[in-house]
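Structure tokens
________________
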Amino acid sequence: MTAHPSPTTTLLRPRFAPFSIPLTGVVPPVCTPLTPEREVDVPSLIRLVDHLVDGGVDGLFVLGSTSEAAYLTDAQRRLVVETVTGHVAGRLPVLAGAIDMTTPRVLDHVRDVTAAGADAVVVTAPFYTRTHPVEIARHYRVIATRSPVPVFAYDLPVSVHTKLSAELVLELAADGVLAGLKDSSGDLGSFRSVVTGARSHPDITGFTLLTGSEVVVDSALALGADGAVPGLGNVDPVGYVRLFRLCRDGDWERARAEQERLCALFRMVDVGDAARMGGSSSALGAFKAALYLRGVIDCPATAEPQVPLSEGEVELVGKYLAGAGLL
């Protein structure tokens, strides 16, 4: 990581990239296929991108939680972004996570992913040490002034142990610091406050509001969200695209039925035995096992030190796929 000079006291408004804002539709957080040796499996990653693009998605988000970004080396992170942006070749916007503990480290990731072709960066609050809302706001302001592309806030309290308040998000949106929000907090009430506030604020225009929850996409869209970033969208992109279009067209009865089908499929994340693995191992293992069973990727390996699914657990994933009509 390289050092950066101290920020100046005057923080300028960021420059936005050319892709259309607000970004709408389904923007899946792309899994990172790995080889048995835990290196990035580039051919499988390209097939996964094709699987998503063919499914009709509206954008791609790499280096998020579902991408196992926290487990990847800096070189692997850059390889993922270069592979995806190079293969997509401008057909869809590519958002990339620039996720790390402190502002200088995030700035290094911003430099790397934008050099690799990312159209926007997605940034959490600082973590490891506890930070005050004023410090979180400064974190985003400094990053936005130095990023050549739009900055999206990533509300992920389960991992960074900080909940972004609606007030803070709206303040940064009104000041032009943030281009959007990916809300993975699971707090639909707080998300509603941001949606309502953004839609009524005279200084907020073109602000993208995306839910990161697989199971309440229809509810979030009914509240006024612009789209969704569902990890399960790796497995069934067509289903989430269909759900988005039904909601967009106001066909709420059919949308509810599609959401319920996806909720049933999402139960695959619990196939792992909680006595021997954590929730991340189970969920990411299930997504990758599903992609492996569907013939999209060559190996369902997850990054160390996550525990792999057993043969029996992979069979259970197959039953969920069959029940959803995907095998």
The two ends are 44 Å apart (CA to CA). Strands lie at 25-26, 60-62, 94-97, 120-123, 151-155, 180-183, 208-211, 227-228. The longest helix spans residues 74-88. Confidence is low (pLDDT under 50) at residues 1-17.
